[in-house]
């Protein structure tokens, strides 16, 4: 996929070193669900996540990555078949050297387009620690609605039990312009 400034593609094993360069940084791994212990651990993590990861490139240089995990919606047994593969959970990480230029916003907007137009999904979600203000602002900037604020439900490796938040956007909201496509 292409945006005005970025290329977005599936991650490959060859991207391991480029992702390691920023994923190992504390300012990136602080809010993530996993922190690599060392390079071997990073390789194992990446191998397990290859199916769900996309790489964000700027002029051929990796500046971030996005998780797009297609999932089933919750459903009663009689209608379970209609809930298969209808939603996705998003996650994101950006190289701090590329921060503050709107690349994450641009990339997430394109992935939302992919989810709703190309994949035909009905709902997209994203979850974060409530204290991760940058991720919360990004979710809101791309038009996602805060649906959940759970008190002390999320165990952070350094901070203990802290609040978590959940965001979502429905396909009809996106089509109505909630996921504004203007750059910011």
TrEMBL record:
InterPro entries: Acyl_CoA_acyltransferase, GNAT_dom, N-acetyltransferase. One of its GO terms (molecular function) is acyltransferase activity, transferring groups other than amino-acyl groups. SUPFAM superfamilies: Acyl-CoA N-acyltransferases (Nat). Pfam families: Acetyltransf_3. It comes from the Bacteria. Coiled coil: none annotated. Residues 6-176 form the N-acetyltransferase domain. PANTHER family: GNAT FAMILY, PUTATIVE (AFU_ORTHOLOGUE AFUA_3G00765)-RELATED-RELATED (PTHR43792), N-ACETYLTRANSFERASE DOMAIN-CONTAINING PROTEIN (PTHR43792:SF1). This is GCN5-related N-acetyltransferase.
